[in-house]
Amino acid sequence: MAEQLIKSKPVYSLWDITKYYLKLGTWGFGGPVALVGYMHRDLVEDKSWLTEEEYKEGLALAQLAPGPLAAQLGIYIGFVHYGLIGATLTGLAFVLPSFIMVVLIGMAYRLYGGLPWMQAVFYGVGAAVIGIIAMSAYKLTIKTISKFEIVAMKGKWLLWLFYIIGILITVITQKEEIILFLACGILYMLIKAPPRWIRKPTAVPVGILFSVSFWKYDSKLLPEIGWFFLKAGAFVFGSGLAIVPFLHGGVVKEFGWLNEKQFLDAVAVAMITPGPVVITVGFIGYIVAGFPGACVAALATFLPCYLFTIALAPSFKKIAKNAGIKAFVDGITASVIGALVGSVIIIGLRSIIDIPTTLIAITAVLALIYNNKIKEPAIIGTAAVIGAALKLL
Q: Coil, helix or strand for 67?
């Protein structure tokens, strides 16, 4: 099956794509919205390693399968031209840098008993991140749906409706609904490219499913940690934002592994480190059960999305050529991008809390608009210094 997905010889090597994801995992700040935006900018627009169609297929599949969105998309992109080994290497390269960082921060956290300096840094970083991901969301919107022009928007009015619904549902519920994505995809398919059995009712319908104390830990905790984070990875759909309420309910409320402050610190660690936001599970695992706990938590969380992606990718690519499936993907993609914009709004309401953070966010957006040479890590670093100066001095 994997051979059906792999196309003619790509313009990049396996080492090239692995190196790219190693860099993205090391320097890719901003969470899922920004990360999927970076992938589109770098791999589709700048390098032309992927087509727009391949990217959209990967984004749709990543949203349909459970687990962290950005990691799934990276695994799928690795699979496109290099199959199972490509998916494995890109997934590991993407997650490993941020995993190492959160473990090191976890060691410091255990040693010093808190991260007040990190909260001060996050004051500025969080605002800058909102500016970065807002720009990424805007670029994804005009690229996947249409430009903000009356004629173009009229031609894609139904996709814009799905997009707006995705924003509203995400903001209201503060989670991303898989049923909404499926419904938008099915509805758009039925309108734009209805299956033959609908056009000819006499035909038999055929359904298609998409379906420090480094080693110190309590050995009894590891199975509990593994099972809990396996459920988190297997049953929570969407971005890192979607998994946070699930983690809070188990880690704080059910098991009492962390208190409220420790959990907020864990989320802060995820937001100021590069790579997927879900890597906070490594930090939580380390605080609860040392390095073994960090490894078990991270492996259990990312394993389901890896397995789902490589299992669905071959058949998904094959059927994606069908007009009905293309319409299905377009419908899902519109609602997915809307949900990502909704996530930006939610995170923004939590990070933009006063005049200084508002100014930092606006400055980040303007820097990205008017100076293409400025990269995101430079903006993040500057914001960190400003935030720390405002809070600590």
A: strand
